[in-house]
Each structure stands twice: as C-alpha cells, then as structure tokens.
Amino acid sequence: MSEALRAGAVRIESFLSETEERCLAEDVRDGLTRPFKEIPSKHFYDTRGSLLFEQICGLPEYYPTRTETQILRDCADEVVARTGAGELVELGSGESGKARILLNAMAGAGTLRRYIAIDVSESVVRSAADALLRDYNALCVHGVIGDFERHLDRIPEPDGVPRLVALLGGTIANFPPASRRELLRGSRGPLGPRGRLLLGTDLVKDRAVIEAAYNDSQGVTAEFNRNLLQVVNRKLDADFATEAFDHAAFFDREQEWIEMRLRARLEADYAAAGLRLDRWFTGPESLFGLSLAARA
Question: What is the pLDDT of residues 182-231, one digit of tens each?
C-alpha cells in the first residue's frame, strides 16, 4: 500500500482547547476548596503523566496490567467471535498495548476495519497510531483527543460492522458511583445498534496485594501522583513545591476502592506561615506528636 494511502488511514481530531485550562482551573478551585480536597483523576494524564503510567504498568507490584492482559489473550478470539466486531473503540487508550490483542483477534477473524482511540494526550495517540499502521496494513486509525466524560458524542458512527467499546485497566474505578453510572450511560451511544462494551474491573482481594500495587518500591507511582501538582503549576501558574508532598495510597475497606492521596508535610505548612520546624517529639508508637517551631 502506498505511503499516501497509509497517511490517509489516520485521522486525528482534537476537542481540547484553551477551554481545557479553564476546566482544570475550575476543577482545582472546586476540589481544593472542599473540606476533603480532591482533583479529578483525568488531570493526571498529560504527556509526562501518561508515560509514567506506562512505567507503572510494567512494575512487578502492579498486577492489574499483566493480569488483564493475560485474560484478554485467553478470551479475545471468543469475544470477537461472539460480537462479530470489526471496530475497536478504546476509552483512555494510552499506548494501545492491550488493544493489539483485540485487533489481532479481529484480523484473525477477517473482520478488522478500524481502531478509534480516545485519550487526552495527542502525542501518545499519534505515537500509537504510527506504530499500529506499521503493523496492520488494513487498519484505519481515528484518534479522538478529548475527555471521555464529555466527548463521547464526538466518536464517529460505526462503519458498517459491529464494534467493541473497551474501557480497560480498571479505569472505571477512578470515578465515584454517580459519575461511574453517568459514564456507563454515555457509553451506550457509541456502541451503535450491534456493539458491546468490554469493561475491565479490579476485584477485591488481600489488602496487602492491592496496596503494594500503588506503593511500588521504585517510587514511580509516587512520582505519577506528584506530577498532578506539576500539571497545575505549569498550566495555572501555581507554585506547589512537589517535594513537600508525600504519596499515600491505601485500600478503603468500606468503599472497596483504593485511595491515592498527596499529604503535605508539616514543614511545608510551617514554611507557608513564615515558620520553620526546630524539633519534633513523638512517643514510642508514633501515635501523637509535638513540634517545636521558630520564625523562619
């Protein structure tokens, strides 16, 4: 196939603009003025955040990626045979590594036609599209650069074949119940009349296994978490000192989800108040502490 034709097999549409900075600003203002501070997880995934997450997926403690990948390898042919899918729509596509398993199954069944990747990082989508076109001669790639909470209506209509809409990696758990249901309702539109939704979900297991996955020994997840502050610094001209925040992740037994937090160190609060920590006192079990502070 000629280079011209292959170039025509890629289409990238971006629905992010300067309004996204306003969206980030609104989310930060809303989230940081609440009693319990929070910022939506979608803001993690700038280019650097996406690359850090790809590193996380390869860590020995991070079981979700390798476990889901093996399940996909085991069931991809059955999923394609059961659905007749010739299109794959991936929400939060990243580097599209898992998508290849499903694309291979479609190619083997002779149904493969198009891959539609939705992600907030245009550079990641373009890189993945280039790699996919080198490996799949008959594939068309359509990149949708956007937020899949707000831009599902920008996904093109099915191209005459059943489609599979995939939300993998346990991403659905990033959303609280109300937002989660809204996202699932929104996913019905892109399915078309014959499509199916393929959803990856983490399962409740030993707490130590779950918490280790989000507190890796190399500190990559901690850097991924603190990168959110760098996003806010860069895009909103904020001045968070990222080194003054500790990464904390733990399993909430009541809600049955993982909580990932940034905890400001006491020294940072003192510094912001024009003070400095002079001495720290605590008991043998570290149940309580006293701090002695002086003028900075």
Answer: 999 999 999 999 999 999 999 999 999 999 999 999 999 999 999 999 99
Same-domain status, 191 and 283: no
Per-residue pLDDT reduced to its tens digit, 97-125:
999 999 999 999 999 999 999 998 899 99
| 171 and 289 inside one domain | no
Domain count across the chain: 2
Q: Cα angle vertex 189, ends 15, 131, to 5°?
A: 55
State the pTM of this model. Answer: 0.83
The Cα–Cα gap between 110 and 85 comes to 10
| Half-sphere exposure of residue 128: CA atoms within 13 angstroms, side-chain side | 32
Helices (H), the chain: 3-7, 19-32, 47-57, 63-83, 99-109, 122-135, 177-186, 188-191, 207-213, 220-236, 266-272
Residues 143 and 8 both lie in one domain:
yes
Quote the domain boundaries for residue 285.
Answer: 266-296
Same-domain check for residues 129 and 272:
no
